[in-house]
Structure formats: structure tokens, C-alpha cells
């Protein structure tokens, strides 16, 4: 049997394994497993339709049978002091951390990202584990604040993005105005791969530029009815018969404009993060979702190489490596174990095989690693690059830790951003100080918040993205560790990570002396300047020009 020759003239060895040596055969299936994985995240401002879209994607994959099965991980409005709500949310976010399903032979892993802005840091970290993202935008609201922040992070990392403009069944902004907004506010280079015909009450359907067909919207509420009609000639009478004379003329004009204004789709540009395809649809009505998914599996990147501090690691390398991007505490306070989510970067991950925990320089074996399928998790024997495994952990892992088969490499790319809120944390029960420090330590490892220790007096400061975290910490310290804490306000505008050109220079020594009151160490022992106002930050920057003030912990 000969290997199959593919369209571009190369040989498809992946479908050819019958008479190969067992090792080669094994290697072939390993490569094939990598090639068929797509790991991505859906990001949006709350309420744009992320949960609804996720659910429809799972329905396509046959992973769930009915709508309503995927629980929203958002925190209900006004729930700030409702701890049951926080626990409910935590429960859901364990269940929806990774949603995996198969579609047309492709294994799709959706990594869940919390929409609530107080949990933005969690989303930033999850974005280090995705190979691409889908951005959901509400057609009426356009680009919203959370979307701007998250897309900025994706842009910085050149993550390939597809934009889905949702809720076309409702009145919204004009499609061209929206495309302008996406370009200007998000700084993207858009390339529409579908285009709406009407909107809201007049919504007739979508012209699918990618597949050259029309998808007619039957408009009967929540039923999932759509009809796809191939269109070979836009000038044809058939088009008029389908959607009417006026809409047909408008569509022709719009498509001409699209062709004139926007660049043609270029897969390489998309993969490099330089071009973003746009789709329109209505997730709730299951409209335009199949088109999005079909295009996604064709263009979205398979697991990508990842930079470690030492070298670039390719997914098809034989030796296993991966990194922890999320840690989830057990919901049951009697079992202190946690689940560490590891993204597999290279090689095969195997159950019960000893792996090196690089930071601790310790070998570890995992007897019950979890794999994720839809909303279930199961014990798994083997996982491949692109997959996420959940490892039970009794406190060995921190976010950002690397696991390997033996090589001492460290993956980069889990930065901390400057928190927005800062408070002193005090021990409210002197008999439980051991429990308090252990609790703080573990919660920080999970990435709930950031801890800073003041240089001057050793006082501990908790920095968070949102005010909600303080209540979460207080609640969890009490319920999981039996410790009590109180907070005290602290006037800090921003935390800046300090980098000195020359640590022995007079300028740097002067900075350390004069600003001593504002200096702290983070958990990694890096020096941080806690600026109390934008003005004092600016003055300090001017006074010490050779010192760099970074707003994220990862700058080297
Ligand atoms: P999120 O995860 O991004 O926060 O959004 P989610 O999917 O929960 O959707 C937010 C609201 O928008 C939901 O309504 C949902 O039904 C609605 N929605 C999603 N997609 C569409 C769409 O294509 N068209 C229309 N008209 N609505 C859409 P809700 O009233 O907040 O919740 P529910 O009671 O319907 O569940």
C-alpha cells in the first residue's frame, strides 16, 4: 500500500500505517492526534452570548442533547455578598473549565473564561493555554469594555481571533458601522466571511462569503430552523425570489463594498494574528453557528509551539511537557485537595508515569488524571498536546509551574497584572495565625489575588482585580482553613514591577532609600513599587529615568 498523495503534492503519511514498524505506527497516530486538536477560548463582555454559543457548539458536537445544559458561570447581579452565589459560581466554573467534544473527526477543547470583570485575571491566565479565540459581540451593544481588555491581551500575544457578531435577530447597529467599531476600538484588521441580510424584524438571513451560499432565517423564535441555499450567481433571479428585490439589491451593493473595502481572507495572516475573520449570526436561534464551526475547524490552529525560558518546544516532540494555568480548590472543605489544570504542550501525557515538577525538582506520578468531555470529567490514560488534564494536587502546584519528562524547562507567559484594589490583611484570630498564613499562601497559589509584603514593616497587602475577591478570600479562609481576617484600606493606585539597569547605581540606591515606604516584594520575591497616585508615579518615573516601571510581572 502506498501513502496517499495529497492535493499539494505531499504524502499523507498519517493515513498510512498498515505495514509500518510498530514504533513508526505509534508515532503516526501520535502526530495525527495532535493535528486533529483545536483548543480555544470564547471571550466576550458578559451577556453578549458566550454561554449560548458554547452550548450550541456542544449541541453540534452531539456532546449535549438539549439546550440549557450548559450553566452560565456568571455571577448574578447584586450577588456581591451572597456567598452561596459565589460557591455556586465556583461549582459551575469547575464543571465548565474545559468543555471538549468531537466534530467531524476534530477534537475540540473549549476553555471557559469567566466573564465577570472581577475575575479578569483568571481569564488572562486561561488565554495562555489557548491556541485561538472566538470573540462574541452583541450586535446592539457593539464593542464593550471587557471585550476591549481581553482582545488587547490576545493581540499582545498574537492569538488568532475570529469574531462572531451575535443577536442578529434583534435590532442592532449597522453592519458596516460595527465593523468600523471593531477595527477602531479593538485595533483589528477585519475580514467579513459572512454578511447579514437585514436585521431584527427584517432579518432574512446571512450571505456566507466563505462558502458562497445563503442561509435563510425562518424567524420563528427559538426553533433551530435554517435553510442553506447554494448561490452561484449573485445577479440571478433566484436571489430575488429568495429574499425579494430590494434586499437582493442591497445585498449585492453591500457585498461589493465588502470586497472593495476589506482585505481578502488570508489564512497565514489570520494565524499570525494580523487578520480577523468576522461572522454574523444568532446563537440563541442556532443561526450562523454551523458556518462558524465549519470554518473554525478548517482554519483554526492546531496545537502551537510554545516558548520556554530555555527554548521553543514543539508539540510533536516525543517528551511530554505542560504547564499549570489554573488551580481549582475542592468544593468540599473536608478534602483540601485541589485540581491543577495542565495544558499539554508536547509529547504524550500518560497516567502513572513519573514526571518532573521542575520548580520543586521533584518527580511526581498521577494515578487519576482527569480528562474533560462536555461537562463530565473522567480518568484518562493518555492525553495529547492541546488537551487539558486535571491533576489532583495537595498543594504542590502553583500557577505557571512546568511538568516535564525530565528536562529542566520553564514555560513563560503567565503574567500578573497590576491589581486595581489594595488592602492590608490582618489576622483577626491570633490563635489561628498558622492557618491564616497557610490559607493565604494557597489561595495566592490558586491565583485568587496577589500578595505583597511591605519592605519597611513586613505587613501583608492583598491586591485584587475586583472588590468581590476580598469577600471570597475572607469567606474561604474561614470555611476552608478555619482562620479569620480583617482588612484595612490602603491608598495605592498601581503596583509596578521594578527593573533597574544597574542595581549598584547611585540612582537606584537613592530610589530604594527615598521610596522605601512604597516598596514591597511580590510572592516571587520581585520588587514592586506601590504608587499612591498617578501623579506620584509620574514624578517618580521622571526622577529615576534609568529605572523601568512595568505594569505586569512578566517583562524579562
Ligand atoms: P454570556 O454567557 O456572554 O454572559 O451570555 P449568555 O449566553 O448567557 O446570553 C445572555 C442573554 O442573551 C441571554 O438572555 C441569552 O438568551 C441571550 N442571547 C444569546 N444569544 C442570543 C441571540 O442570538 N439572540 C437573542 N435575541 N438573544 C440572545 P437572558 O434573558 O439573560 O437569559 P435567558 O433567560 O434567556 O437564559
Explain what the structure shows:
By secondary structure, this protein is an alpha+beta fold. The protein has 14 helices and 33 strands. An 8-stranded antiparallel sheet has the order 29-26-28-27-31-32-30-33. Strands 4-5-3-6-7-13-8 form a 7-stranded mixed sheet, with helices on both faces. Strands 20-19-25-16-17-24 form a 6-stranded antiparallel sheet. The protein is globular. The model is unreliable at 1-20 and 75-81 (pLDDT under 50). Residues 44, 46-52, 72, 74, 115, 166-167, 169-170, 282-285 line the site of guanosine-5',3'-tetraphosphate (G4P).
In short:
The chain is 28% helix and 28% strand.
Proportion in β-strands: 25-35%
CATH superfamily of the largest domain: P-loop containing nucleotide triphosphate hydrolases
Question: What is the CATH C level class of the largest domain, in words?
Answer: Alpha Beta
Under the CATH scheme, the architecture of the largest domain is: 3-Layer(aba) Sandwich
> Hetero groups bound?
guanosine-5',3'-tetraphosphate
Mean pLDDT level? 85
The low-pLDDT segments are 1-20, 75-81
What is the alpha-carbon Rg in Å? 26 Å
Main sheet record = 8 strands, antiparallel
Strand tally: 33
State the helicity in percent bands: 25-40%
The largest sheet has its strands arranged as 29-26-28-27-31-32-30-33
Instruction: Tell me the number of helical segments per DSSP (H or I, 4 or more residues long).
Output: 14
**Structural classification:** alpha+beta
How many separate structural domains? 4
Distance between the termini: 52 Å
The 3D shape can be described as globular
Could you say what the CATH topology of the largest domain is called?
Answer: Rossmann fold
